[in-house]
C-alpha cells in the first residue's frame, strides 16, 4: 500500500491539491469505470478492507495500515461487510461519502502547517471539483437541472434580454465541471467580493452590469424569474437620490 513518507509529503497548497486530485481520481475510477473489479475485490468473507486512492491516480482495496498511529488518516474500515446486505447503488454511494471525508482529512492533515488564507484557498480549489458522491450518485446533475431555467438547459451561462442575467451551469461530465469556472474565475460578487462558483446562483444588474450572489442581494432563482429588469441595491439607491 502506497502511503509515502511524511517527510516527503506535499507541503504547498498546489502540491496538496494535486495530491487530493490524484487520490480522488483513483477513487472515482474505482467506483465508476472499474466498479465491477472493485465490487469483486470487496468480498464480505475477507477481513476489514479499505478503499485507498493513491497520488498516481490509482486505487487499491487493502487491509488498513498496521502502524499506530498511521502515517496518514485511514479511510473507512470494513467497506466489504455491507456489500451483499445493501442495494449496490446505495452501497457505492455510502463508500463515496466516506471517501470524500477521507480525501478531505488527508488534504488537511497534509496542510496542517498552512496558514488561514492558505487553508481557505486549498478548500476553495477542492470545492471546484464535484465530490466523489456527486459523481457516483449523479446528484450534481439533478441538482443543476432543478435550478436551471427551462429555456437555458443547453447553455453554460445565460443573459436574459430586459429580464436580468442569471449564471447557471448545465455541464454534467466530471471532466467538464470546472470549464466555466476558468472562464469566470475573475468574476467577483459586487457585495461580498467572493469569487464566482458554478454551484451558486448569481444575478447581474442590468444597470451597472456587475454580478452578485443571489443570497447577498436576497434574490432567489424563483424570484428572479418575475423580475423584468434587475437593479442592484447600489443602483436602486442612486436612482432614489436623484
TrEMBL record:
Residues 186-238 form the PHD-type domain. It is found in: Nucleus. It holds the Pfam family PHD. Keywords: Chromatin regulator, Metal-binding, Nucleus, Transcription, Transcription regulation, Zinc, Zinc-finger. Its main location: nucleus. One of its GO terms (biological process) is regulation of DNA-templated transcription. One of its GO terms (molecular function) is transcription coregulator activity. GO terms for cellular component: nucleus. Interacts with H3K4me3 and to a lesser extent with H3K4me2. This is PHD finger protein ALFIN-LIKE.
